[in-house]
Amino acid sequence: MKTTILLTLALAAVPSLALATPVGLEVEMGSYMGEEAFFVVYVIDSEGRYAKTLWVAGRDRAYYKEMARWWKYLARQPQDLDAITGASVGSDEGVTLAFEIDEAMLNAGYSLRIESAVEELTVFAEDAVIPLSDASRGQTIEGSGYIDFVILNY
Amino acid sequence: MWRSLHSVLALASLVLVLMISLSGAFLAAGPVVEAFSPAVQQSGDLSVAQVVGVLAQHFDAPDRLDRLPSGAVVLTAIGKTGPERHLVDIRRGTSLGLQNDDPVTMWVRELHRSFFVGMNGRLAAGGTALIMTLLCATGFLLLLRRQGGWRGLFGAVQGRVFERLHAISGRLCLLPLLFMALTGFYLTLVTFAVIPNGQETPPAIPESVAELDPVAPGTLHGLRDIPFASIKSVIYPIAGDWFDAFSVTTGSDHVFIDQFTGDVLSQQPLRPGQIGLEWIKALHTGEGMAPLAAVLGLSALSVPVFAFSGIAVWLGGRRRAGARSRGNVAATLADIVVLVGSENGASWGFARHLAEQLAALGRKVHLDALGSFAEYPEANAVLVLTSTYGDGDAPKSAAGCLAAVRRLRYRPKWSFAVLGFGDMSFANYCGFAGDADAALAERAERLLPLGRVDRESAQSFRRWGDELGSALGLDLRLDYVPPRPPTQRAVLVERTDYGAATGTATAVLVFDAGSGPRLPRCRAGDLVGVVPPGSRVPRYYSPAVGRADGRLEICVRLIAGGEGSGLLHGLAMGDSVDLFMRANPAFHAPKRPLILVAAGTGISPFAGMIRANNRRRDVRLYWGGRDPASDFLYRDEIESWLAYGRLASFASSFSRVGECAYVQDRVAEDAAVLVAQIQAGAAVMVCGSTEMAAGVRTTFDAMLVGHGLNVATLKARRRYLEEIY
Q1: pLDDT recorded at residue B685
Q2: d(CA B152, CA A3)
Q3: C-alpha B578: how far from chain center
Q4: Does the structure's ipTM exceed the value 0.90?
Q5: CA-to-CA distance for B573 and B507, rounded, in angstroms?
Q6: Cβ contact B344:B374 at 8 Å
Q7: Which residues 6+ apart lie within 8 Å of A15 measured at CB?
Q8: What is the bridge-based pairing of β-strands B82-88 and B73-79?
Q9: SS3 of B674, please?
Q10: Which chain A residue shows the shortest CA-CA distance from B247?
Q11: Minimal Cα distance from A80: which residue of B?
Q12: CB distance B238–A62 less than 8 Å?
């Protein structure tokens, strides 16, 4: 409990030191036959190394392990997910996510990667990759798995 | 109480339970079929390195490798359009084809898990599993009660046909069904995160130490040390992540191996939740355990049988309850309870009349079968009206009631009275009523001494009613005359007389329908009731059936003062008599080798069974008379039965000539042969007087001593049947 509080205080203190930019991400799912999709949005650096998780769609933690690549990163670099978890998203549905990204990550080779999974179906470790750069602002980027397309706004 | 809970739960969940069990039966076929799939392989002493090495020759981008419970191995590799799941040959490294779930199976699985309505459906499926658990538990309690406790659990099952079907399938399938319901419920609890699945947080996955030149995974010593037979899965390092490691999951641990050096980076035990879930899942689905899956699948198929027979029993109970009495008050609310022990329904008429009269006097009356005996918290009086079956046994509707009386936990506030129905000419007149009276006296206050009604006498019933009325302070008048059964006219067409010389005047009478409708068909062992004119009470005889001409044959001995036998013996050719048929399944011949023992006219039901023995089953007949010159019934026909093999052997004894033997003496002489026959599965049927039946019983008990058998256990298995008059 104490750790959580300390962690929360620490996170609350961060924006005052580093400048954070609000970022919006529209995610449109394609058509597929199955349960609602779980997906996770995380930041990778220019070398492809995991930096941090921004959003987890899907509340049941028992299924997180299915997103095996991200699960490995999380295992090596634990993070409190409570405040960045939302509902899973069904076939043909859309959702707009909002998060704050450290300004230093923009136009510096960082990207967002989305890993997605549907129960009993294939897991897409790299459903979509969105470079965090001005070039991809407002662009429609197609997904390769359950995601039809995503649009980055900031 | 348990019974109502059982029926309410079953009816409320009927559709869901049927959907779940039928889909479950279908899914259970999966593991059975899979067991014969060519993809199922023995891992032998292959190591993980050998399998991974040989697979590397055929697949470029392996993602993970799973060894399924069946023994088949699936390699997931990233293909051009995304991940592909290949069944693989672990010795050659080749693909045996893609592993695609059959759409029908997927559809049925979804039905089984969620009725196609997502998480709400899963909740409903879990609820159904819980209800099935409760149905199994209450069903087991009811079965115990019905069979009279643990000892009777595997004994013979009595009752109506659907009750028997329900109870027998219960005995057979209760455990597997309970097993599936409990494991299914566990899986639901895991789905809703009530029980952890042990994978809510990741294990601590280490990184490979340093980026070196790529190494063929088949050469990594860490993988060489793990036998392939011990693993569940291998997760390959992610292609773009040089720092990633091999992750091997065995039945008990996660093992992480450096992708360049092959060193074991760390080893961590699986969490208990994960091990538990895998076991329960395997037990529920039978995956990799084809015999278990077969048993579970077949048991699931019994559920429609339960549903069908259960509804039939329930409807039958409602119909009978409706017929019991209008305005029957619930057992827990009634202040007077009337309980009926009846073999053929005759005592019900008296009981219904009593209940109606009490209700008309403003009392709250509950009328029920004696076998449903319970605690009756609000009752002031419990009135038991019961007949007796055979030689002092409980009649059908009273099964288990003595045990239930002895289980009473508190001394009840009600007092009791027992009225027995019987026939004074029987040795053990109202024997069971006496037992019930004695058992109740140990637990409760007596209201009236044991009453007895001889041959449905309306006078004795009225007298008992007067006594009861004064004991209860009620102006009770019982005027009940049992309804006369619908009868049919039969005309005497043949008559043979025997036994005049030995004082046992016996006549074989043959009837046909005359100009009336055809006589009803009956089976050997059924009874024919003859109603003397001016009487309402029928006399029962065991007719000899199976005559080719469809006529009815009754063998009857003249008894001094006997109204029925006097009437029949007084008939001349062409005279007619009123009669009706009554089914008597308790004395139908079992489909086994038979040992038939009869004295005098007791031979007649056996004559019908022997005539019907077209299959030449091993049937032996022992018969006792008085004098071969005078009362040797069926003498000529017995010879033709032996000649045609319908009868395997015949032994007779005569009590008035020669060595003056009784039929049980002949039985005792053949003891060795008969014991061997009984041990091989033969059934014994006895028909005759009370004394003769008792003598035969003693003889068989004496013969069976030292063979682990006795008449009581044979009776319980329906292999020792008696018809006593």
Answers
A1: 95
A2: 63
A3: 39
A4: no
A5: 13
A6: no
A7: A100
A8: antiparallel
A9: helix
A10: A72
A11: B201
A12: no
pLDDT exceeds 70 at position A3: no
User: Which of A72, A79, A116 best probes binding to B when mutated, by most B CB atoms within 10 angstroms?
Assistant: A72
* Interchain CB distance below 8 Å, A72 and B82: no
Give the pLDDT confidence of B361-370 residue by residue, as tens digits.
888 898 888 8
Which tens digit of pLDDT belongs to each residue from A33-80?
888 999 999 999 998 899 999 999 999 888 898 898 999 899 888 899
Q: Which of B674, B663, B671 is nearest to B620 (CA)?
A: B674
Contact B205 A76 (CB under 8 A): yes
Which residues, in sequence order, are CB contacts of B362 under 8 Å at separation 6+? none
| Three-state secondary-structure class, residue B279 | helix
Q: What is the DSSP letter of A30?
A: -
Q: Could you tell me if B92 and B63 are in contact, meaning their C-beta atoms sit under 8 angstroms apart?
A: no
Please provide residue A130's backbone torsions phi and psi, each rounded to the nearest 5 degrees: -125, 110
Around B585, how many Cα atoms within 13 Å sit in the side-chain half-sphere? 7
Considering the entire predicted model, what is its pTM? 0.58
Ranges of residues in chain B with a pLDDT under 50 are none
Backbone angles phi, psi at A21, to 5 degrees: -110, 130
| Candidates A35, A48, A122; nearest CB to B82 | A122
Where b means 16+ CB within 10 Å and e means fewer, B524-557 reads bbbbbbbbbeeeebbbbbbbbbbeeeebbbbbbb
Per residue in B675-708, pLDDT (tens digit) is 999 999 999 999 988 889 889 999 999 999 888 8
If interface means Cβ-Cβ distance under 8 Å, which residues of chain B face chain A?
64, 82-83, 101, 106, 118, 190-191, 193, 197, 199-207, 235, 238, 240-241, 243-244, 247
Rounded Cα gap, residues A8 and A14, in angstroms:
10
Chain B residue numbers with beta carbons less than 8 Å from the beta carbon of A48 are: 240-241
Alpha-carbon distance of B390 to B586, in angstroms, equals 11
